[in-house]
Design goal:
binds 6-(5-methyl-2-OXO-imidazolidin-4-yl)-hexanoic acid; 364 residues; ten-stranded parallel β-sheet; TIM Barrel; alpha/beta; binds S-adenosylmethionine; binds iron/sulfur cluster
Length: 364
């Protein structure tokens, strides 16, 4: 077995990314088979538990309050609503529920307590529970772990250099610090990014350097193709070509052979043949369900037909790691500390983000 490396350089990663296509595909498929069953794909269902109205300026995101997008905002869902949706996801073949909140960071208080209850109720359904709630302190990560959280999603999104061109309201280091806080628990790390935001191939390689040099590497890495949403600063970006998507998936698989590579946003623009190439190149997870957080995703029945056609089987829950135990709120060892963490607010402006904000003001 080839050892997983944590010292990949940008030059080495670029060399892999730019290999002749057939060689790249062969190398990625070979790496895939060393660590995974190539006929098994993990299926997650996304649930937007709190939608829109976010304070951040992420240039890709329809949920940022400052842009004029056509999404329907919602306050935090109830535990009952979440449980009902999770059951539906389980019945349709998902092994994991990923709850997303349009928050900059988690704040201790009633709403976080409610999220902890959601985690408890889904873990009791014997499904893997993932959350993506923004930045997180160590104590908050421990409280989520205690409730039975299986994974925490926190994307690096791009290279450190290009991150500054997309988001100005927080820094790349804040993202790394949150991942570090999650690593202080037993919760697995899910971290990846987006391609198609106008970044260079060097930025894609830079992001993979940042992810692959983490030790341990993230247990799952979502690769999103930008969904260019009207009103966001990135609304006019050209769709990512399938060739770029396959190259990105294959390179991710080679530099992070043990990780679960998730074919994430952007599947509605991809053909079945395109997706099959991604699976061959090492993708072994998808988001299922007709909605991602706010944008469309392929129909579940279509995905089932694709699985049948390709002979793929959904992965059973807790295949890669044992199910965490849930500690009830009354037995918790971790209190609400009401911490006031000092997440950074960098001091730079991004012209296209400013322009989208001004345009939104005139439209209101
Ligand atoms: N607010 C939290 C945060 O930013 O960490 C969690 C939710 S946020 C929507 C989760 C991830 O969704 C982002 O990091 C980004 O990678 C992805 N995302 C958001 N909008 C997207 C878009 N239009 N296209 C592709 N991916 C997107
Ligand atoms: C991830 O990397 N992609 C998912 C999940 N993690 C949270 C989110 C994709 C969101 C796409 C835009 C939307 O639907 O709002
Ligand atoms: Fe808010 Fe997350 Fe969207 Fe950024 S990506 S605007 S933090 S919901």
């Amino acid at each position: 077995m080839i050892e997983t490396r944590h010292n990949w350089t940008k030059e080495e990663i670029l060399e892999i990314y730019n290999k002749p296509f057939m060689e790249l595909l062969y190398d990625a498929a070979t790496a895939h088979r060393l660590h995974h069953d190539p006929n098994v794909v993990q299926v997650s269902t996304l649930l937007s538990i709190k939608t829109g109205g976010c304070s951040e300026d992420c240039g890709y995101c329809p949920q940022a309050a400052r842009y004029h997008t056509n999404i329907e905002g919602n306050d935090l869902m109830s535990v009952q609503q979440v449980k009902a949706q999770a059951l539906r996801a389980k019945e349709s073949g998902s092994s994991r529920v990923c709850m997303g909140a349009a928050w900059r960071n988690v704040k201790d208080g009633e709403e976080f307590d409610q999220v902890l209850e959601m985690v408890r109720s889904i873990n009791k359904l014997d499904m893997e529970v993932c959350c993506t709630l923004g930045m997180l302190t160590e104590n908050q990560a421990k409280r989520l772990a205690e409730a039975g959280l299986y994974a925490y999603n926190h994307n690096l999104d791009s290279s450190e250099e290009y991150y500054k061109e997309v988001i100005s309201t927080r820094g790349f280091q804040d993202r790394l610090d949150t991942i570090d806080n999650v690593r202080k628990t037993n919760v697995t790390v899910c971290s990846g990014g987006i391609i198609g935001m106008g970044e260079k191939v060097e930025d894609r390689a830079g992001m993979l350097v940042a992810l692959s040099t983490l030790n341990p590497q993230p247990e799952s890495v979502p690769i999103n193709a930008l969904v260019a949403v009207e009103g966001t600063p990135l609304e006019d970006q050209e769709p990512v070509s399938i060739w770029d998507m396959v190259r990105m998936v294959a390179t991710t698989r080679i530099v992070m052979p043990e990780t679960q590579v998730r074919l994430s946003a952007g599947r509605t623009q991809m053909t079945r043949e395109g997706q099959a190439m991604c699976f061959f190149a090492g993708a072994n997870s998808i988001f299922a369900g007709d909605k991602l957080l706010t944008t469309p995703n392929p129909d579940v029945n279509e995905d089932m037909k694709m699985f049948e056609l390709l002979g793929l089987n959904p992965q059973k829950p807790f295949t890669k790691k044992v199910q965490p135990q849930t500690v009830e709120a009354k037995d918790s060892q971790y209190q609400d500390l009401g911490e006031k963490p000092k997440w950074t607010r960098p001091d730079h402006t991004i012209e296209r983000n400013e322009a989208a904000k001004q345009k939104a003001k005139t439209l209101k």
